[in-house]
Amino acid sequence: MLAAHLPPLAASLFSLLAITSLLLAFVMLGSRWLYEYMVAFAVQSWLIAFLSAAIAFYGDYPELYGIAALTALFRGLVLPYLLLRIIRRLEIDRELHERLSPSSSLVVGGLLVVFAFVVSTHLGAALGLGGTVAVLALTVMLSMKLIGFLMLIVRSEVVSQILAILVLENGIFLGSQILVPGMPILLELVILFDLLVVVACFGVLVRYLLVHAGTSSTRELTRLTG
Amino acid sequence: MSPAPIILVILLAPLVAVTGCLLTRRPRISEYLNLTAAAIVFAAVMRLLPIALVGPYVFWDHYFIVDALGAWVMLTVGTVYLLASLYAIGYMRQINEPSRLSPFYALLAGFALTMLLAPLMNNIGVYWIAIELTTLVSTFLVGFEHTREGVEAAWKYIVIVSAGISLALLGIVFFYWAGSLHLGPSYNLTWSTLRSVAPQLNPTIALAAFLLVFIGFGTKVGLAPMHTWLPDAHSEGPAPVSAMLSGALLNTAMIGIARFIGVTDATRLGLMPRTVVVVIGALSLAIAALFIARQRDVKRLMAYSSVEHMGVMTLGFGFGGPLGVAGALYHMLNHSLNKSLMFFGAGDAMHAFHSKRIGRIRFVLSAMPVAGVLWIAGALAITGAPPFGLFLSELTIMRAGLAGPNAWAVFVMLVLLVVIFVGFLNHFRHMYFGEHPAREGPGGAWTRPRGTGFWCLLPMWLAAVPLLVLGLWWPGAISHYFAIIAAQLGGGLRP
Amino acid sequence: MTRDILLQIAQVFTVLALAPLLQGIILQWEERVQRSQGPGIFQPYRDLWKLFHKQLVVPETASVIYWIAPVIAFTCMLTVPILIPVLTNFPLPLSDMGDILGGGLILTLGSFFIVLAGLDSGSAYGGIGSSRAVMLGILAEPTLILVFVGITLLAKSMLPFVVNHLLVSQPAVYWSPAHIFLVAAFFILLLVETDRLPIHSSTHIEVYMIEEARILEYSGPLLALVRWASAMKQFILYTIFCNVLLLPWALSIRGLALGALGAAAALLGKFLLIAAVVVAVETTQSRLRYYRYQEPLAGSFLLAILAIVANQMR
Fold it and tell me: Do residue B204 and residue A172 have CB atoms under 8 angstroms apart?
């Protein structure tokens, strides 16, 4: 597999990109401003696109260049643009009532990263891959998953929830680029497209929520219980 | 005979209906267009069943597969789609918004299309995408009535299911990764590839991957504790949509789990994955029992009953072996018929009494004599009472469980089924033979309900009669069919 | 051997002598950035001199703690330079007494006694200051420990000299994300521990005081000792930051007098660099509310965790 025999420079480049993406997930977690979330997500997507291109270069997977370009285009430009439109329509620019203050969620997120670290170390050891970039990718992937779920839990604005789901997807995408760069290109294309449809659906639903429920915060969605 | 033309028909019919409904603005044309598509799909699926039996056909560059299991699930989808299309005609006319009928039928046909697509997918990644698509389409059906509750339910549905199912994608990536250590970096991750490479997979990573996949698709199936979206979505959509969600959608995700259990049987994981599946199945039963006993909303009652029956099916697949698989699959069909019947009855009652509150529904038999009888017969059936199909399938699953290593779950299941039987029928006792019409809340006056039309009664008959027949007579051909499916799923856990 | 002992004494003396200068430089630059004149860079020396010649006023309620706390704090700050590379990049005779954790422990002991002293006199402000300082300590401590863990994982050792050698000899490690995140985490800790913005507490408004409130009861020579000790603490933390983590170069390798002098000069140069960054942070940041103190620390905690995670790949 790719990660097992890489030149050291490529390995540190990959790890730097992966860790910086994780840091950006934390920027989202630690901020109250919806606009900042969106920018952080866009930058994260660009980093992942750059990672794809780097993998294409070092691992000799020419089709990943195309994926990189599409990632940058869709995740880095189109999705943020759609989100920006939703944010503008909402006329709300920050989380008003967080269930957990940003600093507490940072600490909880940090603990989740430690958990992901332990899990991926075990998995890496089981596969005899300890100390390679694969284990790091696994950690980052699991961490971003967990952080996405944490964002879903502690944030109540609809835009934050959409972004949380996008962070979940970005985590998988980032990890799969490093772990399984040879994944059939059709699959990656369809997943990219699927993401676009998901966000479009969310956009429509947000409008429904505004019109029929009169709110853009999931705190108000408390009718259905039991 | 190649199944490709039949598949084309099955996929094209709803597609034509979608485009037709989008093009025309006439509600009547849309109604019948959708109904025709449903009838064609049902006929084609019936034709597909014997062909699929002969063996798995893989075509169109390995992306499509027709096997017995997939065809069986397509049968449940086709059946529920037909019943729901019939019922929708009567039900949606009463809502009295003719301009929105065409989009509704377009969405309904599109929903059916995505559900028919999922069992056909051979590439696991594409299967995941098909499941994701079903969510996206059905979200708008859930929120179709544009009430505050409906939109809330739609939002919870899409958020919880999208988040949950992304775990399944992670699990699939893990499987791909584990496989790539043996098959080289680039290969097609089909069900058969995965099963053939399974014995070589590293057990640790295979277990992690299976757990992720199980949690992910389990969310879509509505297994506790990931079931929280299900009661909301199933109770807020229009009744035909609830029937489709409950009777068809859950099955399409369930076969993913069944196939992955087949894969893990071939790994070196031993009993562990099956035990996890059984525990989650039993937990779903327990949660459903608790919520059924204290339910106040008639459609949520049905929704929790779906959680229960998904738990039963999960137990069946978890027990495994020819008997467990047969029980689970028979249960799948029976549940599809029965749950459609239940939601149709609930829809009738809702229209008749203008409320979903159990406390507001009284003297059902006097309000809707025929539908009322069918509904309470369905209620008996869904709790597993003898003359109906679910009794047979639940019994089969229990027999399968007693033979296996997780026999404790059978006793748990038995106790919980009794609790559910009492709790569920108690609500019906109130609704049918309650003391007096409850006058609670604002405007609590009990109005004389309206009757039920032809279009609402027909699908109820069409669901109830086969249900009774399947309870009295288990066709031998079906047993043969199930045996083949069980063999294709790996024939249970090998020591 | 004699040379090493002399060098060790020189290390302590460097810290003792240059600590007020660092404080003076930072104070002057801050004022300069805000376009005012500012005190001269030697003002802290003049202050100390003045204080040593003042009369000592002791509160009636003071116990023996009041007397020994400044001395202990001062002694602690004199002890730590023995353990860390101030001038030389090789361990001196007594450097093996303790590792990074030991040094941190001694630094904390000094602060702990100042906290006790704040409580000792029984004045309201001393109590407030002490409780806040302890709260801040509780918030900062996990991060500090994590940074140490990160350093240990990086160098497979807790001795500052080993870390220094590793970073000098292996540029790959120096530029690895693990190290970069550790530097960032430690920098935030540095700001917190040396009383800089965004947790600047050395104002003259009692409500906001932390550091000052604890020593309000001190006067004369004892106050001078406390001030000097706190300047030395800052100097020591800067030294660890520069010589161990950020700029591990320009230390005396062979231990000659010239090298030691050069190292001292280089140390000043490095500190000016750090001080410039600190001044920039102070100028751009506004003071946080007391209830938001945890935010920078949470960020630092997180960076330390990321550093540990990044260590996974080696």
Answer: no
Range ranked top by mean pLDDT from B341-355, B411-425, C176-190, C195-209: B411-425
Physical contact, C and A (3 or more Cβ pairs within 8 A): yes
Distance CA A108, CA A116 (A): 12
Q: B316-349 in b/e burial notation, b at 16+ Cβ within 10 A?
A: bbbbbbbbbbbbbbbbbbbbbbbbbbbbbbbbbb
Cα gap B305→B381, rounded to integer Å: 12
pLDDT(B445) > 50? no
The winner for highest mean pLDDT among B424-438, B456-470, C95-109 is: B456-470
Chain A residue closest to C294 (CA)? A103
Radius of gyration for the alpha carbons in chain C, expressed in angstroms and rounded: 19
DSSP per residue, A135-173: HHHHHHHHHHHHHHHHHHHH--BHHHHHHHHHHHHHHHH
Q: What confidence score (pLDDT) does residue B86 get?
A: 93
| C-alpha dihedral (B341, B342, B345, B351), degrees to nearest 10 | -130
Chain B hits for A181, CB-CB cut-off 8 Å, are 185
Residue C24: CB partners within 8 Å, gap ≥ 6?
C39, C40, C41, C42, C43, C44, C45
In the prediction, which pLDDT does B491 show?
Answer: 61
Hey, which chains touch C, using 3+ CB pairs under 8 Å?
A
Region class of B363: left (phi > 0), else alpha (psi between -120 and 50), else beta: left
This prediction's pTM = 0.88
Quick one: pLDDT at residue C201?
59
- pLDDT-based confidence at C120, cuts 50/70/90? confident
DSSP string, B73-120: HHHHHHHHHHHHHHHHHHHHHHHT-GGGHHHHHHHHHHHHHHHHHGGG
Q: Which ipTM was obtained for this model?
A: 0.94
Q: Cα separation of A182 and C196, whole Å?
A: 50
Chain B residues with CB inside 8 Å of A169's CB?
A: 166
pLDDT at position B441, please?
A: 46
Neighbours of B85 (CB within 10 A): 28
| Per-residue CA distances from C220 to B176, B207, C47, C49, C224 (Å) | 73, 70, 10, 10, 6
Going by C-beta distance under 8 Å and a sequence separation of 6 or more, which residues neighbour residue A104?
C294, C298
How many CB pairs (< 8 A) connect A and C? 73
B133 touches chain A (CB under 8 A): yes
* C-alpha separations of A105 from A109, A131, A134 in Å: 6, 29, 27
Residues C247-269 pLDDT 10s = 888 888 887 888 888 898 999 89
B192 touching A (Cβ < 8 Å): no
Backbone φ/ψ region at B147: left (φ over 0), alpha (ψ -120 to 50), beta: beta
- A189 contact B CB<8A: no
Are A103 and A88 spatial neighbours (Cβ–Cβ below 8 Å)?
A: no
At which residue do the structure tokens 């075990």 appear? Answer: A122
Task: Tell me if the bond preceding B225 is cis, omega within 30° of 0.
Answer: yes
**Structural contact between residues B332 and B481, judged by C-beta atoms closer than 8 angstroms:** no
Q: Is C28 helix (H, G, I), strand (E, B) or coil?
A: helix
The answer, for A92 touching chain C at a CB cutoff of 8 Å, is: no
Q: Which of A158-172, B162-176, C49-63, C200-214 is the least confident region?
A: C200-214
| pLDDT, averaged across chain A | 87
| Alpha-carbon torsion angle A170, A172, A174, A180, nearest 10 | -150
Instruction: Report which of C156, C20, C18 is spatially closest to residue C87, judged by C-alpha positions.
Output: C18
The answer to whether A15 contacts C310, with C-beta atoms less than 8 Å apart, is: yes
